[in-house]
Write a structure and sequence with these properties.
Glutaredoxin, Glutathione S-transferase Yfyf (Class Pi), Chain A, domain 2, 54% helix, globular, binds glutathione
Length: 201
């Protein structure tokens, strides 16, 4: 199995699950944005030249959430996702998809507007709107986390998806001061040995 990975990217999610599952994998690392990500060989793996991507048993897959679901279905033996007839299952699905559906869109805008664009092309209104939206998205996670250790009754791949998005939002400087449950959730996730490895490959 081969993982295409960059630090500080959604590829950490895939490495995190692989580490949690104790699976062997090889890794090809890119610096985010480096030219090799647009080489024809890599565009044949991921048509937008992004990470993560995974090769396994002759197939190639991109989209972090899809890769996690593939790994769970193929290798997890029922770990890291609740049974479909459990009370946790709908919550699990909801928070699994919340990361890419709700948290990452305003994060993407913020990254573009505060890091990637040269100052003369940045738009203050976009920064304000995406900061407000990100704050709303994080507030919903914070409220859900009151009295909980993880998004469902046990650690699952939903914590990898949305937990990673929350961690990245914190790294980007999102305001957590009015979100009493997120700092301890972030610390709990960061203390997992599998994330420590995945973060610093
Ligand atoms: N929805 C995709 C997003 C993939 C994506 O945008 N990856 C970013 C890093 S987090 C990337 O490769 N950026 C490099 C680029 O755009 O050149 C996923 O979850 O895998």
């Amino acid at each position: 199995m081969k993982l295409y990975y960059s630090r500080n990217s959604r590829a950490v999610r895939v490495a995190w699950l692989l580490e949690e599952m104790g699976l062997e994998y090889e890794i090809q690392k890119f610096e985010l944005g480096e030219r090799a990500m647009r080489d024809p060989e890599y565009l044949a793996v991921h048509p937008m030249g992004r990470v993560p991507a995974l090769e396994d048993r002759g197939i190639t897959l991109f989209e972090s959430g899809a890769i996690l679901q593939y790994l769970l279905a193929r290798y997890s033996n029922g770990h890291f996702a609740p049974p479909i007839n459990s009370r946790d299952f709908p919550d699990y699905l909801q928070w699994f998809h919340y990361a890419e559906g709700m948290i990452m869109p305003p994060m993407n805008t913020l990254v573009v507007e505060t890091i990637l664009l040269p100052p003369e092309r940045r738009t203050e209104i976009n920064v304000k709107r995406s900061t407000k939206l990100l704050n709303q998205m994080l507030t919903a996670v914070d409220q859900h986390m009151a009295g909980r250790e993880y998004l469902t009754s046990q650690f699952t791949a939903a914590d990898i998806m949305t937990g990673h998005a929350v961690i990245m939002a914190g790294e980007l400087g999102a305001d957590l001061s009015d979100k009493p449950n997120l700092p301890s959730y972030i610390e709990r996730l960061r203390n997992r040995p599998a994330l420590k490895v995945a973060w610093s490959l």
